[in-house]
Amino acid sequence: MNEFLLGSVFLIATIALFFVSKQIYRLFPNPFTLPIFLTSGIFVIILYVVDIPYQLYMLGGQWIDLFLGPIVVALALPLYRQLKLIKRYARSIFIGIFAGSAVGVLSGVSGAKLLGFEQWLIQSVAAKSVTTPVALSITDTAGGNLSFAAVFVMIAGISGAMFGPSLVRICRIEHPVARGLGIGTASHAIGTAKALELGQLEGAVSALSMTISAVIVSFLVPFFLMFF
Prior knowledge:
Elements: H1 3-27, H2 35-50, H3 54-66, H4 68-74, H5 76-81, H6 83-88, H7 90-114, H8 119-125, H9 132-142, H10 146-170, H11 176-198, H12 200-225
């Protein structure tokens, strides 16, 4: 089987499984039936059981990966639509993003330190709360492991999408700006996609938070790592 055909099989299988997961989520709405979590989990199990190398799967997966950039750029649309409201809350938003970014970095490196992780692993977890390309660049500069960094970013994003909406309800956070800010700062693009389900303003603030926090974290990581 040539690479194009094999890649097509994996691509179609991934898309089909995602749509099946969406139907399951509609019938049984639950953090653990969230389509991105369910699809990722099932595929990991399949690849492991059938012993299919990740590189082989990426013959098709790379086509999905190509669309990640345009999708992230498309998140600017709700941001543009809610621009007036965002300007009104600009001060609160920027303070919140800075605080959330600092907590994201500090919680990662301090938690890893308390658990007795080695230094390279602490450096790998530091940028977990920003989008993958930025996190990998920060991790490379900090001397961490890029593969582990990608895993930590994925965990932060998926867990934020799974439990973020529930947490804001439990904490009685009702203002849409606050909800979008928290989810976007902690869970980058995956969290932003979930925030859009809560509302246009939540999605817009989340997209803004995801972007600005990436810049802030790139400065905070080297600073905090000096103390760990």
